[in-house]
User: Fold this.
Amino acid sequence: MSFVSLLMVIVPFSPPLGSSDGQGRILQRFPEKDWEDNPFPQGIELFCQPNGWQLYTERQPPAFFVAVLTDINSERHYCACFTFWEEVDNSQPQKSLSSEADEDDDSGILQPAQLFAPKSLVLVSRLDHTDVFRNCLGLIYTVHIDGLNVQLENLIGNLLTCVIPIAGGSQPDQDEKEESLRTITLGAGDRQVIQTPITDSLPVSGCSVAQLFRQLGIINVLYLFCAALTEHKILFLSSSYHRLTDACRALLAIMFPLKYSFTYVPILPGKLLEVLSTPTPFIIGVNSFFRSETQELLDVIIADLDGGTVTIPECVHISLLPDPLLHQTQTALSMVLDPELEIADHAFPQGSTQPSSPKIQDKEIRAVFLWLFAQLFQGYRWCLHIIRIHPEPVIRFHKAAFLGQRSLTEDDFLMKVLDGMAFAGFVSERGPPYRAIDLFDDLIANEVERIRLEEGNPHKMMNHVKELAEHLFKNENPYPAVAMHKVQRPSEGSHLQLHQMIFPHLDEVTVQLFIDHAAAKLRSAPPAVKVEKNCMVPSGPPLGAIVDRNGNVLANSARRLEVVRNCITYIFENKMLEAKKLLPAVLRALKGRAARQCLTQELNLHVQQNRAVLDDQQFDYVVRMMNCTLQDCSHMDEYGIAAALLPLVTAFCRKLGAGITQFAYSCVQEHTVWTNMQFWEAMFYSDVQNHIRALYIEVSEHELPSPDQGELVEEDKCALEIASEQRRLWPTLSKEKQQELIQKEESTVFSQAIHYANRMSYLLLPLDTSKNRLLRSSGLGDVESVSNSYVTNSIAGSMAESYDTESGFEDAETSDVANSVVRFINRFVDKVCNESGVTNEHLKALHTMIPDIVQMHIETLDAVHRESKRLPPIQKPKLLRPALLAGEELMMDGLRVYLIADGREEATGVLGGPPLLPAEGAIFLTTYRLIFKGTPSDPLVAEQVVTRSFPVASLTKEKKISISLQMDQFIQEGLQLRSCTFQLMKIAFDEEVASDLAEVFRKHIHKLRYPQHVRGTFAFTVGQSSKLVVEHKHKEKNQSLNSWQTNELFHGLKSGVLTMGRMNHSTTTLSKNLMKNAKKTIGRQYVTRKKYTPPTWENRGSIQSQVDEDEISVSEEVDQSSLTMSSTIKSSDRQTMSNVVERACCRDYQRLGLGTLSNSLTRSKNEPFRISTVNRMYTVCRSYPGLLIVPQSIPDSTIQRISRCYRQNRFPVVCWRNSRTKAVLLRSAGLHGKGVAGFFKSPNAPSAGPSQADSISLEQEKYLHAIISSMPSYSDTSGRNTLSGFTSAHMSSSDSSDKQRQPKIGALMKQVMGSKEELPGTFSRGGKWGSIRVSGRISSYNPDIGTRLAGKDSPQANGGPSETHFLRQQRAHLYIIGDKSQLKGAKQDSFQQWEVVPIEVFDVRQVKTSFKKLMKACVPSSSSLDSNMTFYRCLEESEWMCLLHKVLQVSVLVVELLDTGSSVMVSLEDGWDITTQVVSLVQLLSDPYYRTFDGFRLLVEKEWLSFGHRFSHRGAQTMTSQSSGFTPVFLQFLDCVHQIHLQFPMEFEFSQYYLKFLAYHYVSNRFRTFLLDSDYERIELGVMYEEKGERKNPQVYKSVWDNIDRLNKKTPIFFNYMFSPEDGEVLKPYSCISNLKVWEFYTEETLSEGPSYDWELIHGRPETTEEAERQDTSAPKSQRKIIWPCYDNKSKVEPDAITKLFQELQSLEVELGQVSEKWKDTWDKIKATQRTETKLEHRHTLSTSLLMSSNLSHHRRVNLQESGVGSSLNLTLDTESSSTSTPSGSMVGGRPSTSTLYSQFQTTESEHRSFEGILYKKGALLKPWKPRWFVLDKTKHQLRYYENRQDKDCKGVIDLAEVESVTPGTPTMGAPKAIDEKAFFDLKTTKRFYNFCAQDSHNAQLWIDSIQSCLSDA
Assistant:
C-alpha cells in the first residue's frame, strides 16, 4: 500500500520589485520534512504557472492540470496543480510604506483598478490518479470558498494519510477486491472509490489516446509514433495544459510494451524553454503562447493539438513502419475511428455502425498498436542469449539474427528501433525467463498463428482487436459498477463573489499530528505484500517457422544444393577432376543463402575431433568455397553463415612441413565481418549460453538418480527454459550451493573469454604480419563500435580512446599489427566480461594474457608464412604476348590482371553459353594500344583466348576501383578504363603486381594519352624509340616577324623540325621569299597520284577539260596593303602552286565547274566564280584552306573586310554546285554577336553617320547578291544580272502584296525550325523519297514545294493557275540556314532574294554529354540494378538518336532546296562542327560521286580537313586540349552516313565496314590524317605534304587513305557488292528516330581477336593453312559451326556468299599453283560477262547477279518496315514480266531458289530438257484450266512451263527442292472434258498445291514417274 500523496504545497504569488513578471514562492508545505523515499521536488513553483506569474484585472475561474516531473532516478512525480485567484492588497508591492499606511488604505482616496493574483494548491504523488487529485483539491477549495463547517487541517491530514491499494492480480477474488478497491473520504461528507489496475505494467490512458487521434488524425499520430520510437524530438503545442498532459500520456500509452526513456516533460514552463535546444530526444509540451519561440527549432517535430497539424522539418527523416504493417495498421485504425467508412458506398447499409464510446475506442486503438508490436517482435525470445543465470539473469539480444530471420535487414525503421534505448529497456525488463507475465507476453506466446491468419482479413483482425480492447478496459476498470463518487463542488459562480476570504494560513502542528498518528497505525498493521505470480515466460513459435512462408529460404533449387554436396564429396574423396568441373557451378550457387548454409553443414560432416587434415589441392578448394561464401555475407552476418564457418576455419588445415600446420583461417581473413565487434559479441554470447546450458544439464544429470525421463526432458529444454527453472529453485538453495553455482558460471564465461581471445587473434592477424592489410582496409576499431549490448563501462571507453589516438598511423611494423589486434581484443574482453560479471582478478589475468596469446600466434604464423612460400606456386595460366603492329613497341611488360565482366552480359554466360569472363591474363601497354590477352577463369572454356584492346589515344576515362573476386579471397585494387571506341576494360591486378607498379602503369597511360604536343602521338613516334618523343616547348614570344626571322623560320620549316607559334591577325606584310618557302611546304602526299578521271555518269559539259593544270590565274583586284607580291605567279613557282591546287581540292572544284584556270589575266566574264588566293598565306582565316571559291565580281580586298563579320573570320565560300540546277552550297561561320552584321539587323536601328560598319554591311549585301546573280534561274527571271534589274522586275507588285509575302518555308522547314505543326507526307517525288521511284527525272521541280517555300496558299493574287513560271519569281534564290539565337532581330530581304531560316541547333556540349551517356548505355560498367534502366531506355536518355535526327533533317531540307534551284548558305556556330556535318551530308546525298571511294575521301579531305574541323581539339589529343574533353562530331557524321547507307545499300561503293574503320582510326592516332586542327597547323608542323618515298618502314602508313587503298587491293572488305548506282541520283533518307538504327560499331565485340580494324594484326596470321592441315590428318569432322555472339568475328567465321566464293577461288588457285588474280579484276570480269549476257538474252531471270547489274529500276531503298519480309532484306528486285512493273511471282520475299544459282551459266541454246510435254494446269483461285508446255529439267532440278513449245520466255518455275509429294488426283471444277480420270495428278510443294491434267492416263503415269525419279536422284 502507499500513501495517496506525499506533499501538499501552497504557493502564493510574490511580485518582485519594479517588475511586471512575478514569481511564486512556497507558503506552506506538508509534511515539513521529506518522506524517506521521496525528496521534495525543487522548482515546483515554476510548474504551477508555466506561462509565468502575472496579475490579472479580472478574477479567473479556478484551473486544474497535472504536470509530470522526473527525478534523478528516472522516477516520475505527478504534480496536480489547482489554481484560483485572490485579490491583491494594493500596498503589497510598496515595501517602504509603514504599517500605519496599510491601515489607512480603506479611506476614500481613488484606488487603482482591483488586481487579482494566482494561488496554487499542489499535490505531488508517485501515483497517477488525475480524477482523485482533482476531486480532493476541489473539495479543499469548496470548503474554503463556500465556508463549510469543516477544518481545512483535517481535510489535508486525511488526504496525506489515506492509503492507496496495490494493483491486484488478473482475476481478483473477494479479498483482493478489497485490496484493489479503496473508498476514501476526507471528512467533508465526501466518498471516492479508487480502483487500481489489475496489471500495473499496462499503462492507464483513460480517453487520452482516442482524444489524440481526434485532434491529429491517423497519419499524423503514426508519424509521431514512429518518430518517438526512432528517437526524434517531439514538441506538442496547445493552449490547454490539461490537453498537453493527455497527449503526452497517450503517445506513451501506444508505445507499450516499449517504455520511453528520454526527456519527458508534458508541461514545460516558459522560463525553461532553452531545454528545447538539448541534443537528446524528448517529448515535451509547451503552451501555444510560446509558439513564436519554437519556430527556430530546426530538428524538432511540432504537433499543434489545437490546429491538428504535425510539422516535420526538412532535415528530419522519419523512418516509417515496414510497408504491409503500415497499411494494415492504418486500415485497422480507420475501422476503429470511422467504422462507417467501410459501408459508406453501400446502397443498402446494414444499420448504422457508430464508433464506440471514447473510453472503449481508446482501448481499441491501443489494442491495434499492441497487435502491431506483436507482429514486429514476434519470435524475439528466440534471439535472446542468456549469459548468466545466477545471482541475477544477464540477457543479451542477438539483433543480426533477428533481422536476418525476419528478412528485414534492409528495414530502416526496425533497425533504428532495435538500436534504440526503449528496446534496450524492453530486453532488460522482459528478457528474464522467470517473472510475472502480462497481456503482451501472452500475445507473443500464444497468438502468433492467429495474427498471421488475420493479416489479410481486416474483419478477423477487428474481432481480435476488440478482444484485446476488452482486456485493456477490464485492466483499467476492474469494477466499473462500483465506481461511484460523492464529492461536493463549489456553488455556481462562487469564484466571482466580490469579497472572498483569503485562503487561511494552516496550522502545521494539527496536520503533523494526523500524519504521525497514521504512520504509527500503519507500522502496527501487517505489511501489505503483493503476491508475485511469477512463472516461466513462454517463447512462442520459433522464428524459422515464421519466415518460411516468405519462401526466402527456399530461393535455391534442390539441384543447386545437390551440386554443392556432390562437389564437397568429390573433394574429400580426392576425385579432384570431378570437383574441378563442378567448382564454377558451386561458386555461382553460393550466391544463394540456402547453398551457403548447406556448405557449412556439409563441411561440418567432414570434421573429426575438431581437426580435418587436407592435401594442398583439397585445402585450396575448401578455402575458395569458404571465401566465396563469406564474400556475400554482410558485416552483420544476419544469416549466421560466418558464425557457422568460425569453428570450421580453425578445423581445416594442411601440413606444410615438420610440425608446421596451416589452418584455413589464415586464408579467409579478408572479410569485414571479422572486424565487426557486434559479430564477435553475438558469437561469444551464443557460445556462453550453450556452455551454461550444458552446465545445468550436467548438474541435473548428477542429481537425478533415475535417468529415464529426466535426461530427455532436460536435453530438450532450451537455455531460457532451464534458466527459468533455475530461477524458480534459487530461493530454495543453500548459501553454499548458490555460491558454488555463481562460481561455476563465472569460470565458464572466463574460459570462453580466453577461447575467444585466441579465435580473434587467428582471424585478425594476417599471415604475413608485415602487411597490415586487414587493419588498414577496415580501419579496425577506428570507430567505437555500436554494439548489441547496452552496458557502458569506463574501461572499454578508456581503451577505445587510447586506441583512437594512434589509429591514424599505418606503419607496417609487426609490433603495430600486434598492438592493433591486442587493443581490439582488449576492448572486446572488457566489454563482454563487465557485462557478464567476470571478477576483476580474472579480468586482469585476461589483460595480461592477451599480448602473450597474440605474440605466440605471430611466431606460429611466421613459420607458416615461411613454409607457405616454399609451396609450389599455384599453376597460373602462362602470359600470352600480343601481336604488335610494325613500329608499335611495348612500353611496359605485361602485368598479370583479371579482366572482370562489366554490364554487358554476353560474355558472362548469363544469356547462355560458358562464361568467358572473368578471364586471367596480362595487360600490355604499347605506344599505340592497351591490350588485354588471357584465358577465361572458367575451366570449361579455358582453352579459348580472350583479347580486348583499344588505342591509348581513345581513352576517355580512367578510375581506380576495388574489386572482390570470386576465385580469390582478397579485395583487389583495379582500374576501369573506358574508350571512345566503345570498349571498357575492368581489370583487377593480381596480388603479385605491387601497388607502386600499378601506379607506374597508370602514369604511363596518362603520359601516352595526353602527350605534350601532337608530335608525341603514335602517328609521329611510330617506329622511333619511345624516348625520342619531342616535347613541344618552343614558342616565339614576339609574334610579329621581321624578314630575317621569317627567312630563318621558313628555312627551318622546310626540314619540318622547327615548329612555329600561331601567327595572329596583325601580321600584315609577308615577303615574297616567305611566300615561296611556304608554298614548297604546302600540299599533301597524293600529288603524285594519277590524274583524276571523272565518273562516266557526270555531265562535264561546263568544265574546260583541256585546261593546263599547272597554271592558275588569280584575282586582278589584289589588295596591295595586305600582299607585297605581284598579282600573277611566276612560272618558276608554278610547280609549287600545283601542290596547292591539288591540296585545295581544286580537282573537285574543276569537276563541279566552279574554278577558272586559264593562262591569261583576261577571263571570260560569264564565269560566275573564281578561285581566290586571298588566303594563300592563311592571313584572312587561319582555319580555311589556301584556295577558296568566291563570286567572280568580288575583289579580294572586299573579302578581307567581309571576313571580320563572321566568327573566326570564316566568311561564306562556295563548296559545291548542283550540276543540274546550278544552285550552289555555301558554308560559313555564324555572325559575330556584336551587330557588325548590319544587313541582318532591323533598318531603323540608330546609326551615327556613315560608319565603317555600314560600308561592311553594304559589301556583305553585295557579296550575297553576287552569289544570287551567279544562278541561271536568277538571270532567267530578272533578265539582267544586276540588282536594279531584279528590283524593277518586282516593282509592279503592290505594298499590300509585299506585306503578305512572309517567309513561310514548307513543311520540312517547319519541322526543322521546330514548328509544332507537323505536316504529313513527303515533299517531292523527285529523287528517292520512300520506296517509290519516279521513272523519269522531273523537268523543273515540284510546284507543291514552291508554293510552300514562297509561303503563299494561292501564288497568284487573281487566283490564276499555279504555274512553275510564277512560282520561280516568288521563291527566294538563297536560303541562309542560321542559328535561331544568332538571328534575333534579323530582317528578311524585302525582294525575296534571300530568306533566313532560323533553326535551333545543338551545341558541342550537348554532343559531348550525349556521347558520354551513349557510351554508358552501349558499354555499361556494371549491370543495372534498376529494372527500368534497360538498354533502350538508356539509349533514349542519351538523346544521341535525336541529335542524328536533327542533323539529317536539316541536311535533307538543304538537299531539297538545292534540288529545286535555290542556293543555300549554311551559317551555324563557328562553322567547323555542325556546319561541316550538314554541308558534307548534303553533298553526299546530292552527288553520287561522293558515294564512291575516291569521292568520299575527297569529301572528308575537303570539308573536314581543309576547312578546319578541329580534330585535335575535339578529340582531346594533347595535354592542352585535355580539359575540353572528347566531342565526337566526326563520329556523328559517320553515324549519319551509316544511317543513309542502311536505307540505300545499293548507292554506296564502300561497305559499312569502311565507315567503322574510319570511326575507329579517326580517334586511334595511328595515322596522321586526323591530327591537328587546320591546314595551317599542318603546314606549320611540316606534315601537310609528305612524299611517299619518305617512308622508311614499308609497313608504316602515315595516311589512313593509303592504308585503305592498300587493303582494298588485297581484299574486298571495304567494297559493297550491292553497289549499283543510278545516274545523278539524289537521296532523301527518312530521318525520323523510328527509322534510325543503333550502329553496330557501338555494340559489337570480338573477344577472340579484339577490334578488327588493325587489319594486319588479325589477317596477317597464317592460321588458316594450319587448320586445314590439322583437319586433313584428323578423322572426318562435323560441318557444324558454333558461333559465340561476343567471341567470334561473325563476318570472318561465316562470310557472305560472294566473299566465300572469292575465298574458295583463291584456295583453288593456290592448289593448282596458279598466280592468284586480284579480287577486283575477277569481280569486274564477272560484271562485264553478266552485262553482255543480259544484252544477249533480253530476258529477265532471277539471279544472284542482279545485285551487280546496273539496270535495276525500282525498290532501291531497302527498308525493313516496308519490304514485308520482316528481318530478311528484300533484294529480289527484278521481275518476271517487264522492267516497269512491280515485283511479282513466287520468289519475291522468299529465299533464292536453286535455279538462280544456274542462271549465270545459261547457254544461247535452250535448256536441258529431261522430259517435256503438254499438261493442263489449274490456275489460281477462280481462274480456268489452261494447257501449258512443261519442261522437266534434271540438271537445274526444276519444272518450268511456257505458253507453247516455241516460246522462249519461261512463264513460271516450280523448284523441285520444294516439292513434298506427287500423287494421282481427281478432276475438279472446270477441268477439261472427256479426259480419263486417271489422267489427273497433284503436285504438293511447300508453298502451294498444283492440279495437273495429262492427255491420258499413260502420259500422267509417265510424268509422275519422271518427277519421282528426279526427286529420288536429288
